[in-house]
Amino acid sequence: MLLHALRIIIPALLVCVFINGEMVQSALNAIPAFITDGLTVASGFIVVVGYAMVINMMKARYLMPFFFLGFIIAAFSNYNLIAFGVIGTCIALIYLKLNPEYGNSVPLAVGDDLD
Predict the structure, then answer these.
(1) pTM of the predicted model, to two decimals?
(2) Is 48:73 a contact under the CB 8 Å cutoff?
């Protein structure tokens, strides 16, 4: 473990000592705008492709409409991740309650008499 720690600490320490913020900023400014714009667009797709791959691996094609709905809402709104978590939780509970396969497994509230 000590050798593994030294393998990481020594290069990181050398970078911190010999490279300052101005050097990093000048290196970033040297990158052409079309490359940084392309990387910005590509970074937005990485998350989407990752979620699609997980859904595909789970063989849960019935979740794809929710995936696309979330993508559309994210593209045209300014919600943060907490808002998406709350919206997703609400949609999941509604889906579980309305789906005949799971209809009685998720109570809407404690002491719910509606069933």
Answers:
(1) 0.43
(2) no
* pLDDT one-digit tens code per residue, 86-108: 988 998 888 888 887 776 655 55
C-alpha 87 chain-centroid distance = 15
Q: What is the secondary structure of 32-84 as a DSSP string? A: -HHHHHHHHHHHHHHHHHHHHHHHHHTT-GGGHHHHHHHHHHHHT----HHHH
Instruction: Please state, in angstroms and rounded to a whole number, the distance separating the CA atoms of residues 73 and 89.
Output: 15
State how far the Cα of 104 lies from the Cα of 97, in Å rounded to an integer: 7
CB 52 within 8 A of CB 63: no
- Residue 53's alpha-carbon distances to 44, 76, 98, in angstroms, are 15, 23, 26
Integer Cα distance of 5 and 74 in angstroms: 40
